[in-house]
Every structure is written in structure tokens, then in C-alpha cells.
Amino acid sequence: MSYTYPTTVPESASDPDPSDPHYQPSRRDFFVIATGAFAAVGAVAFVWPFVDQMNPDASALALASIEVDVSAMEPGQSITVVWRGKPVFIRYRTDEEIAAAKDTQLSELKDPVARNDNLEAGAPATDENRAAAGHEAFLVMVGICTHLGCVPLGEAGDYNGWFCPCHGSVYDTAGRIRHGPAPENLLVPPLTFADDTTIKIG
Amino acid sequence: MQGTSEYTPRTGIERWIDKRMPLPRLMYDSFVSYPIPRNLNYAYAFGGILSVMLISQILTGVVLAMHYAANSEIAFTSVEHIMRDVNYGWLLRYLHMNGSSMFFLAVYVHIFRGLYYGSYKSPREIQWLLGVVLFLLMMATAFMGYVLPWGQMSFWAATVITNLFSAIPLVGDAIRTWLWGGFSVGDPTLNRFFSLHYLLPFMIAGVVILHVWAFHVTGQTNPTGVEPKSRRDVVPFTPHATMKDAVALVAFFLVFAWFVFYMPNYLGHPDNYVEANPLVTPPHIVPEWYFLPFYAILRAIPSKLGGVIALGLSVVVLFLVPWLDTSKVLSAAYRPLYRIFFWVFVVVCIGLGYIGAMPPEGGYIIAGQLLTAYYFIHFFIILPLLGFIETPKPRPASITEAVLGRPDEPGEPATPAGATAMPERRG
Amino acid sequence: MLKLITQLSAAGALVLASFAMASAAEEALPHFPLKEPEEVDWSFSGPFGTYDQQQLQRGFQVYREICSACHSLNLVPFRALGWEGGPHFSEEEVKALAAEYTVTDGPDDTGEMFERPGAPYDYFPAPFPNAKAAAYANGGAAPPDLSVIAQGRGVERGFPTFITDIFTTYQEGGPDYIHALLTGYEDPPEGEDVRPGQYYNPHYAYAAALAMPPPLFDDAITYAQNEDEDPNNDVPQTVDQYSKDVAAFLMWAAEPHMEARKSMGFTVLAFLLILTALTYYTKRRVWSDVEH
């Protein structure tokens, strides 16, 4: 009887020592690795729906634009509208405010970039690049402080622009950050004038 | 089978952790070196499948809860919002809703496997009782989950099941009102069901840990019903059981995916795509398929209280099985009579399921009553009696003998059964 | 032993079958629908089924010109009409279609609701302000919302079809039912009393007659598809064709992501098949030196 009993833990091909200089991956290793790799790919693919479901859904993405009638606004008046759940400031600026903004040199600015979604990413933060194109009296900005998301107060602060009550960021009459902890100018959202008195945001 | 630990921490970090909180040691001893009988078949893979299904249900459930609104005004719409607008929402919802069916499919195979191989017998009674507790928790969870989409079937299932409690004498009506939080199933009911539906799976997970703990104390049964006696009767959990469970799991996923992607609504009912309407009952209300046998038992008794008692007893009887079965032989493979009655019982359960789906009229009523009677006869008469009248077939001396088909000749010194864990092979 | 088991199972099945026959013979209540729906050959049935874009556009036209007079489509936004795997209208077409509807918005700055043309993100406006108004205007029966009607209807399939359905992946009970209902109006048989305001239809799921009058007739609408220059893509303008098209459209409305589901299903199943083979082979290797 030359029968050998199976050992409970299969030896030989089953448990080679990879540190052995004569170690060579066997066919079994190949299949184990292939199976593991295949299963891992499947697991990663399976994770994606669980991640992606937290992104804005189709109905949220669809609610993209609003139209605002500004025909009743007077110089020096501000309104706040809601766009994508966020406040948007629309200010009909006075001539003094425009002049003050234009007199400011780019070198005086903390953030010299326009932060205007209607322009190229690196456009300079001149007053022209901040105001609504073709309607320089109108300044349209997302009313969220770029520091930590509070809503700044209007006609306040050292420059009589905006002042954030949370942590003291001060913006000028073109919504540019002048001092305080906020890193960037207030964001100008995508906007067009549907006609002379209607602003379409988004 | 609680032997000495075989875990050897190799790196400094492992040693550091092992001295403070030896979780890796526990996992290693439970799922790597843990010895399992070498003759387990695929019916033993369903415990692992159930664990994975529980995790899958919790994962999909948690993300669905991020989009679902438990408010009777908008619950139905919020589910449709998931199906239409949420990224991959349809996939997650179909996975969750078919997952519950797959969960029950697996648990029924698991339970019948336990009944066939006598997994409830000494010393595994607590293991079995915990299993029945899990089954009850699953039923409660599934029922409350079915209410959440707030379709017609949801609403009327909630109404019918909560009305079962009104059969209790004296306090029944008060309990029913308390369950509803009102004078009918409504918004408060939906909210509490959502809360409990979210809670119960974690209680299930807790009991699962006890269930797994229990079987790590007693060891698994196996198709011979003979306990492992030497180290040649067992193999280490990893890689042997792990790989076998993996094969079964992937094959099970194939079935699962077939339903999710090609017939996601087959196991549901069209009426649940009709928003709940408290003024109109659908002409033919039926529970989900996994409750059909119990539903048939409920309807077989032509009395409100009687039906509820029969329904309750049909589940509670599972708690009594370890003591109703008088035979000392574990595996049905060596019990010629029990084996026949076991398969008859399986057919009867399937028959009850079929009757449960049929309208309660004509021959279905009588058939339902006969099958219900047999269901209880099986547990209360056949099981106790068989132990006395049956002559078991000769059992093998050991698992290895059964596997090899001839007496086991110890060719190497066998380690005592108490320390069968595998030594580390790698130098 | 196995033989005995099979015999016993067969006996059990026989018992059940005999009960089933007994019950069929002594049915007390009539079972609705009186007639089972015919199975239509849908483009979207089976594991590889896809919606026929042209059919969905025609079905949408039927809904818009006929059904929408009484039936809402509350859960479907206009933007969905542009989704891939649906009618797939172009962005401009969707905007134009939406603008044909008037939606109520507001309140405006004065607190009043106002009306404006629809936009892609709006939902189909309902023909009635609420269910009670709908019921009042329709003789007491509110026309159901059609958003998920194709999943909310279906006639029970019975034995053994419900088992073979698992393998044929039959999921078209809803559209089959809609098609059967819309084409199923007929004169009531002798002796069948139909109340005024009710219309006999043996395909109706809940009774022998329903409150909806036959909504379609041949040449009721002219398909936009038939008005173009190309005579090759003309479709018949019959009740049968209208019913099929609108049933397909409602199936899409109920399950707009069906195509994505089925194509992902193919990938997943193919992946799992390969993984099954790989794990099985690995398992064989692992167990190769242990007899078991």
C-alpha cells in the first residue's frame, strides 16, 4: 500500500515561500492572483454607484437658471435673489461706487483675479471685469463669503462695499476682497442680459 | 474546539496591536486557522452568503435613506425620485428590494440545511435559537421595509399585519392603536416603521456575531453528523472554506444579478407601483413571496384569534425543534425515515407558499387547511415519534472514513480534537 | 432513496394540482380581467431589449394629443424627453415642447402665482388641479396618473408561466395590459348589464366595464412621422398601432433607465460568469490534495 493520506494543509505547490531563491510562481498562483485581481476590479466598480449617488441628481442639475426683472431698480439699490439655493446680490451701483472701484489699482488687491464665470479663468480683477458686461452699473455676485460661506452685509465695511459679520472680511464696491481672512473675490455667476431690464443668471 | 491560538504576529506593528487589543488574533483564529470539517458541501455556504447579503442590504439601505423621505405625502414620489433622478438610484433601489428576496432565499436554504443535518441538536441548541431570533428579526425588518415605498401593497400589508395584534384579547385594540400612532395606518406609522427598519438590521448584525460565536464554540456540523475526531477530519477555514464559500457566493450573485438587471419587478407586485390609497383595497392582496407559507397558515384557520395563534406558532415552533426531535442521530443521511419526512415537509412548505398566493376560495381553502395541519403534525408528532421508531443506518467512525469510504488508518500522530487548529506552515 | 423522494414529490404535486383544478371548477366570484392580455412583441423585451426611439416619440404624441386631456404624468419632467434611452428629443426640441405648455409658478414679488411657458426642468402640468376636481369632472372616477402605470398594472400569469417567466425575463405585463385595454373595448354580451357612463371591456383588471370611454379610433391623430417626405417610415394610424405606441411610451415613462439597466446587466453577468469560473478553478486547486 503506497497510499499517502492527504495532509490537512496542502503543502508543496500550495504554500511556496516567495523568499526562496528558487521560487517560481506556479500555475495555481497565477489563478489565485487572477481571481483576486478580477474580484478586486469588480469590487471597485461596485463602489462607484455608492459614491456617485451623493452627487447632485438629475433634478438638481436641471434647475440651472433664473431670470430677474431689474426694471424697477434705482441706483444705490440692492436686491438679493435665490439661485441654486444660494443668495445672489444684484446691486445697481451709484456713480461714486463705480468711480471708487475704478480708481483702485490691481496692486492694491488681495486677489487680483476677476473670479468671473463669464470670463477666462485668469482675467484681472478690474472693475470692468467684475461688473455685468455692457451694464457697468450692475454688479451681480454670489452672496457667499469666500472664507467660510457666510452671507456678507451690504453697504458696510471700510470700503462701503460688503462686510462679512462672521470673521470680518471686507469687500469693496466691486465685491473684491480687500482685507480679512477671505482668500478670493466674491464670485460672479454666469449671467446674461436677456433684454435691457432682465438678467438671466445661470 | 476552543484550542490554543495559532496566531503569530510577524511584524512589530502586529505585535504592538496584539498586546493591546488582539483583534487580528481573533480574526485569524476565527476565519483563517479555524478548523472546519473536510466534508462540508455547498449547502454549508449559505451562512457566508447570508453575512454578505446582510452587509449588502445595510449598504444599499443606508444610501437609499439619503434620498428617501418618510412622509406619507411624498414617500411614494421620493422612491420614484430615486428611480429616476438620483445617480444610479434605480440600481441601488433594485439591489435593495431584490436583495431582501435573495436574503430570504438564502435563509430558507440555510434553515432547511440545518433541519436536514440536525444542526439544532446538542450541543448546538443556543446556536439554533439565535438563528430563529435572527429569522424573526429579518421578518420584522422585511415587513417594515416593504411599507416604506407607500404603494398600495405597502399600505394594505401594514394594515393587515398590524390588525393581527387586534386579535389579542382585552388589550388588542389598544396595541393596534399604539402601533399605528393614530386610528389607522398613516404618517406616524410610516415614520416609526422607517426608524425601526433602519434600526433592526444593526440588531441583526449584533445577533449574527453571537450566532457566529456560538458555532465557533461548538464547531460546525457536517453531512455525516460525526464530530471531527482527528486533525485529518478537518481543514483550515482559509483557504479551503473561504474559497468554497466564494464559489457559492459568486454563483449566488449570478442569480441575484439576473433578477436585479433583467426582472427587477418579478418578485414584487404591480400594485406597489400604485400610490397608497386608504379608500380602496386592491382586489387581491398578497405578501411578498417569502411570507406566503405563513400567510397560508394564517388564512387556514377560520377564526381571527385562531389564525393569529397558528401564524405565531408556525414560527415559534422552530424554537422548540431541538427538544421536539428525539433522535440522537444528527444527519438525515443516516436516518432513512426522517429523510423521507424531511422532503415531504419541504414539499408541504412550497405547497403552502403556493396556496398563500392563491385567492382564498374553493379547493384552495381545504388544501391550505390540510397542508397547515401537516405542517404542525410534522413538528409535534412526526419529529418526536421518529426518534423512537426509526432504526438509523450505521454511521462511519469518523469523517475521514466517510470521505475515503474505508476505515481510517492513522498514518501520522493525530492531535487531540481539542487542538485541531493548523500550525503555521511557513517557516 | 432518491427515487422515493421523487415519487413523494410527484405525489405532493399531484395533490396540489388536483386542489387547483377543484378550485377552478367551483369558482364563486368572477376573476378579472375576464380576458388575459395578448403578449405583444415589444422591442424592449428580453435581456437585450431597447426602446424604439421613433415609437416612443409617436407614443408621446398619442399621450399629448389624447391621454393628457384627462390623465396627468406628474413624475415625468420635460427634460426626461431628451434623455438617451428614451424619446431622445434634441435639446432644442425639448425646450420647444416644454414651452408649448403653460405652468404655474410663483409666488412672485407681490405674492401672487403667475403663469409662464414651461421649461425643461418643469414637470408635465396635470389636467386637473387635484384628485377631487378630476373625479368631479369625470363622473366620480378620477383618471389615474400615468407616470408609473406601466409598472402598476399587470395580470397574474398563473402556473406554469410564472416559472418560465424567470428564464424568458418577461417584464412586459404592464404594456401588454395597456395595449389589451385600449384595443379591448367591445359590445357587452347578451344579458350583461352595463351602467350608463360605463364601457364594457373584458380586459379591464377590476371589473367588466370601466368609466373611461374608448379613447382611440383609427386616424384619430396624424403622426408627425407620417408627415415628412419619406414614405418609407410611415406607420399605420390604427387603434392597434396607437395603443402599442402609447404603451411603449408609458413603459419608458415608468422606467426611463431600463436600457441602462439591461446593458449594465450584461456587463455584470459576463463579469460574474468569468469570476465564477476563476473562483471555481481556484477552489479546485485549493482542495486538490484533500479528498472530500
Produce a short descriptive summary:
The complex is a heterotrimer of chains A (about 200), B (about 425) and C (about 290). Helix content of chain B is about 60%, strand content about 0%.
Can you describe this structure?
The complex is a heterotrimer of chains A (202), B (427) and C (292). The model of chain A is unreliable at 1-16 (pLDDT under 50). With 202 residues, chain A is of the alpha+beta class. In chain A, the strands form 3 sheets. In chain A, strands 5-6-7-8 form a 4-stranded antiparallel sheet, with no helix packed on it. Chain A is built from 4 helices and 10 strands; from the N terminus they run ααβββααβββββββ. Mean pLDDT of chain B is 92; it is low at 412-427. Chain B has a domain at 21-294: Cytochrome Bc1 Complex, Chain C, CATH 1.20.810.10. The radius of gyration of chain B is 24 Å and the shape is globular. By secondary structure, chain C is mainly α. Chain C has one domain: Cytochrome c-like domain (Cytochrome Bc1 Complex, Chain D, domain 2). Chain C is 41% helix and 4% strand. In chain C, β1 and β2 form a beta hairpin. Chains B and C meet through α4, α5, α10, α13 and α14 of B and α1 and α9 of C.
Name a few traits of the molecule:
heterotrimer, A: 202 residues, alpha+beta, disordered N terminus, C: 292 residues, mainly alpha, Cytochrome Bc1 Complex, Chain D, domain 2, two-stranded antiparallel ribbon, 41% helix, 4% strand, globular
